What does this fold into?
Amino acid sequence: MAKEEPYDRWHKARPGPGEPECPDHPGLVASNEHGCENRWQARWRDRGGRQRARNFAKNKKTAAVAFQRSQRAAVEEGRDPFPHRGRNTASTTPTITEYVETFLSRHEGREGTVESYGYRLRGHVVPALGTRAVGDVKRGEYRDLFTTLKAQGMPDATRSGVKKALSVMLSMAVEDGHLEGNPVAGIRLPKGSGRNVRLTWKHVVALAEEITPQYRIMIWYGSLQALRSMEAAGVRCTDMETLAGKQLVEEQRRRGKAAPLKTEASHALLAVGAFLREEYEAHLAQWRAPLSGAALRRRERRGLAPIPEEFGDLVTVTRFWTPVRENTLCREFDLAKERARARGVMVPKNATFRDLRHFADAVLMASGLEPRKVQARMRHGRIAETLDTYGYLVWEVDWENAPASFEELYGIPAPPGLPDAALVPWAERKHPDAATVPDPHAGRHTPSGAA
It folds into this structure.
């Protein structure tokens, strides 16, 4: 099999014995062309067996690899590769709009990745360049597109996402022979400063108190179990009840339907603390009790569809007994932020549901839990993601505002060295002397001996 690596014109492929090493690149021997602008050379043989080549600039190795691959693929398929077959005509070259759909239908990534690419390409690239042929759009025009998006107020991180989706699509266009090289490769955009939202227990408790009560348990799934938004929406009763003291994480919801988790590492069996177990049981009693005959008749009179049996096992549903969708949860979370800020708890304005997951990671790391155990809780494929991605979030935890003790919250023994405030049982925090006292915010009762 021919190697895909392009030829390096700066260095000899077969140096002679005793030739000195390149002073700039140890381990390699400099050629007479060392330092020339066009360092990389794509090579292939045409259908007649003749050697063909095309040179690329020193910073265009990726473009050389893609071009070489497309040329060789064209020869194997019996087509005349560039540049000897002439430019594509408008009748054979698809437009950006047409190729976006081709790209999305052929991409073999995760369903969520394909959806994300589709949103970025259809929402930002197609409106600006959709009528143009793929091969006619120049590098400068793509750069102008990114400049326009910034002028419209798009954050740098979002622009980088648009560029990534566009670059992946254009790389496929190179392989299909519509382009000689990827015109977006090498365009550098600022990645942005990243998110720096720091939630505290005071914020989390306020969000749980202020969100619409039937969605309250989702706040705890995010902040205690580190579930992503649609993983929290997809929790089933069987997930909570199959094994005592444990929660299965096996699927999520996407557009209301069951969908695979983000990665294989996302599948897990998580410990459930006494606090979350009580919240779960109170939630079922208040929001998932079977509707009475009168309620069912009222639904029928209002023209509402029967409650589908497939949603009967979900822990959280909307008031219409349908799965919670992303836009619904985002809206409810934003309303909870506004209510919390109105009563003086200054939840960060740009906080999202995902920041609850970041909060869980930060609390566990700051509490001194072993990194491997934090990785298992977060369901990361690599421990570097646990340590690096959320490292900036570690801070001193305000345990005095936590709703329960560490062990009651997370279902695992408290690490040594935690402050006394992290060890105070839930029953002693607000009502140390009461046997059963109603909590007006949580919509449940505190049982005696909850510790």
About this structure: The chain has 17 helices and nine strands. Confidence is low (pLDDT under 50) at residues 84-91, 431-451. The two ends are 66 Å apart (CA to CA). The longest strand covers residues 40-45.
